[in-house]
Specification:
The chain is of the alpha/beta class and 227 residues long. The protein has a single domain (2-97, 155-220), classed as P-loop containing nucleotide triphosphate hydrolases (Rossmann fold). Helix content is 34%, strand content 28%. The protein contains 7 helices and 10 strands. It has helices at residues 44-52, 74-84, 100-110, 116-125, 141-154, 171-188, 199-202, and strands at 2-13, 16-28, 33-37, 59-64, 67-68, 85-88, 159-163, 191-195, 207-212, 215-220. The protein has a 6-stranded mixed β-sheet with strand order 6-7-8-3-9-10, with helices on both faces. Strands 2-1-4-5 form a 4-stranded antiparallel β-sheet. Bound molecules: adenosine-5'-triphosphate (ATP). Residues 11, 13, 18, 20, 38, 40-46 line the site of adenosine-5'-triphosphate. One of its GO terms (molecular function) is ATP hydrolysis activity. One of its GO terms (cellular component) is plasma membrane. Residues 2-227 form the ABC transporter domain. This is Putative ABC transport system ATP-binding protein. Keywords: ATP-binding, Nucleotide-binding, Transport.
Length: 227
């Protein structure tokens, strides 16, 4: 589903080039969930952006659904991202002037993949069924993040990329949102790559990798064992 092969990425800074990823390889199968941990500045978001085709590596390959992202033009990458990738960030990025229902179906409509029955099911499963005609400012933080998750899943993506999706929520709300997210990911069969600082959040996922000094390591399998 998602493959990174020997991916390197540097940024230009006033102090010179900053090497963030150095020969990183990983494979994520359909339906698999992977937590990506690491200290602040270790390159987690950079890796997520490369996986989404929001940026391209300096060297190496990112393959998404068998397409090599760096061989695509930016509009082609945007098209593939709309169809195959759901994105959830710490900030909810909802459209204030659109209702809950319209926010939820927005990406799916843009991708030409709007399925009203699936959107209704998502609203119900996310506990937003009674709030479909409200506007984002009339929702709590947890409800807004549930809506952002619904928007990402409405397109039935093959891959869900989540960057600290519960980072803005209190612990109880974060647990509720995470449980809902993992249940929906399982129901929809998509692969999940989630960046998190929290071992609690990472624990229920199939695997956990840590990024440090530009490299991936500390692999944990579903049973908590390191290898
Ligand atoms: N566009 C850019 N230009 C220059 N430097 C950048 C750019 N984007 C990221 N960086 C730098 O690359 C490094 C990795 O950033 P990244 O956001 O991937 O880290 P992170 O592990 O996600 O951090 P955090 O946990 O704090 O969100 C950081 O030192 C950051 O300052």
């Amino acid at each position: 589903m998602l493959e990174l092969h020997q991916v390197s990425k540097s940024f230009t800074t006033p102090q010179g080039p900053l090497r963030v990823l150095e020969g990183v390889s990983l494979a994520l199968a359909a339906g698999e969930s992977l937590a990506l941990m690491g200290e602040s500045g270790s390159g987690k978001s950079t890796l997520l952006h490369l996986a989404a085709g929001l940026d391209v590596p300096d060297t190496g390959e990112v393959r998404l659904a068998t397409r090599v992202l760096s061989s695509l033009s930016e509009p082609e990458r945007a098209g593939l991202r709309r169809e195959a990738v759901g994105l959830v960030f710490q900030q909810f990025h909802l459209v204030p002037s659109l209702s809950v229902a319209d926010n939820l179906s927005l990406q799916a409509r843009l991708a030409g993949r709007h399925d009203p029955a699936w959107c209704d099911e998502l609203l119900a499963r996310l506990g937003l069924g009674d709030m479909a005609q409200r506007y984002p400012e009339q929702l709590s933080g947890g409800q807004q993040q549930r809506l952002a998750i619904g928007r990402a899943l409405a397109v039935r993506p093959a891959l869900l990329l989540a960057d600290e999706p519960t980072g803005n929520l209190d612990e109880t709300t974060a647990d509720e949102v995470l449980t809902l997210l993992l249940g929906l990911v399982q129901a929809s069969g998509c692969a999940l790559l989630m960046v998190t600082h929290s071992p609690r959040v990472a624990a229920p996922l199939d695997r956990c990798l840590t990024l440090a000094h530009g490299q991936l390591g500390a692999i944990r399998n579903a049973h908590g064992a390191s290898r």
